[in-house]
Amino acid sequence: MLALLRVTFFASVLLTSSAAAVVVYDSDKRGVVASEQFARAIEIVDLRDLTTGVQYNDVLVGGSSGHIVLSERDSIGQNILFQPKRIPLYHPRSEAASLAVMQDTSSSNDKVDVVASLDRNEDDVAALVMIRDIKGSNATSPVLETLIAREEFRDSNINNTDAHLMSVTSSDVKAVDLDDDGEVDLVACIAGNHTSGSEEGFLVVGRLDLESSKFVFETIYEGLGGTAFVEVADLDGDGDLDLVVSAPERNLILLFWNDGSGSFTSTVLDATAKAAGKMAVGDVDNDGRLDIVVGGETFLVAYFQEVEPTADKVSKQAASFAEGVTIWDIKDESRRCTSGCEVNKILIEDIDGDGSPDVAFTIEGVFELNVLFQGKTPRESLVSLDSPYGFSLGDLNLDGLVDIVGSAGNDYKVFYFLGEEVEATEQPTFMPSSPPAPQQETAAPKKTDLESNESSGQPIQQDSTSSATTATLHSALVVWCIAASTMFALK
User: Fold this and answer.
1) How far apart are CA 305 and CA 88, in angstroms?
2) Which residues of 88-120 are buried (b: 16+ CB within 10 A; e: fewer)?
3) Is the pLDDT of residue 470 over 80?
4) CB 398 within 8 A of CB 55
5) No. of H helices and E strands in the chain?
6) What are phi and psi of 411, to 5 degrees?
7) Closest CA to 127 of 159, 94, 175, 154
8) Where does the record locate the signal sequence feature (predicted)?
9) Residue 355 burial (CB < 10 Å; 0-12/13-18/19+)?
10) How many Å apart are CA 246 and CA 269, to the nearest integer?
């Protein structure tokens, strides 16, 4: 009987391993979310209609022509249709650098407000705006409200800021509960040109005043030198949200440790950062601790958290992170950007469903959405995007697989790509269309079919005769196992 169990288990393993699946994305099976050229801010909004109880996922897009777009999904399944609706901002050249979604998750309300950080426009009247009632069962028409205006900075209404700032812009904003009081707070990076000619940068926190229903802002750090970016995560695992801030003009990366009440102590993670641009926080090495990934022009740098954080957040906390190491560089692949060469966005997400977080990113001038799969070959191409900017990951059709929404600047479109689960091959890979190849000055030697497939990142096509032979051998082995099981059972 023991022999029977062993043989049966062996046959079961063979059958299970042959049925392994991976998620793939086909660039030729894309749909349109909205018609926008340079959409840097894209967010998937996951909501449930209180009237019908139906869950749906809409997409918010920050356009570059004085508006944001709410693309509402009006169908489900593989044939998704979006109905885009433009919501105007103050100025026809206003551009949303980032969007923060504020959802009322109470059982009696499904309203959605959106906060937009505005930059790249010296004529705009505001750096931070809120669009109230953009979505919801009881929503009528969206209402635009100024949160931080240029005049507020000139009048020094925000603590510790200079009264002589001009052309105030905001490069990033997040909506989270920093003090655990059940109300949403805002954290934003603000920049402005000083009348003296220098550029200043501030990190501000806005808390909701319940009496006036207005956000009151205070500056918690100044000296970022202009444009900056912020990410929010519980870095030390104490139950409250901490901040990571990168300042490209200063080559500076800072950590802000929350004491639980929304008060912060700052430490320097890297004062001479090789990369200090867009960021993402996640467990990149799968060791149970959060790491930080920062984008440079053509490379990614990771700060791995190696030891458990300590209670001494002033002197020891930053030491829990190792020195930054480059985890990917386009130069290592003998490739080059065609233009721009800037990491536009980074997200850390388990894309292939293996339980380990992966790193997805776009670079302007590299015509694809890239991913570093944990424990697999460095850098795969998920989908082709012509001059990519922002992107977002989520489950659009509610099938449990990660879908992609990404901006293709040269196509003037924001596309979606649905994840498809297929049986894994001997060498699992993703299936994008081939990106445009850079021109070469001299003709390269002709490659074999195998070499061409490997260098282009396309799936290696197996010989049909070989595949049939493998399938025959596998079937014969399974039959042998069953026969052996029966023989041992009779004995």
Assistant:
1) 42
2) ebbeeebbbbbbbbbbeeeeeebbbbbbbbbbb
3) no
4) yes
5) 4, 30
6) -90, -5
7) 94
8) 1-21
9) exposed
10) 10
Task: Give yes or no for a contact between 270 and 253, defined as CB atoms under 8 angstroms apart.
Answer: yes
Residues 346 and 277: their CA atoms lie apart, in Å, by 10
Q: How much is the pLDDT for 3?
A: 32
183: its two tokens: 């109300």
For 393-433, the pLDDT digits (tens) are: 999 888 889 999 999 888 889 999 999 888 766 443 333 33
Report helix, strand or coil for 360: strand
d(CA 460, CA 450): 7
The pTM of this model reads 0.77
- The structure tokens listed for 201 are 């940068």
**Under a CB-based contact definition with an 8 Å cutoff, are residues 389 and 364 in contact?**
yes
Query: Buried b / exposed e across 304-336, counting CB within 10 Å, b at 16+?
Result: bbeeebeeebeeebbebbeebeebbebeeeeee
DSSP state of 27: T
Please check the confidence at residue 491 and state whether its pLDDT lies above 60.
no
Distance CA 133, CA 230 (A): 25
What is the tens place of the pLDDT at every residue in 42-99?
Answer: 999 876 665 666 677 889 999 777 889 999 887 655 567 888 889 988 877 788 999 9
| Cross-strand partners of 217 | 206
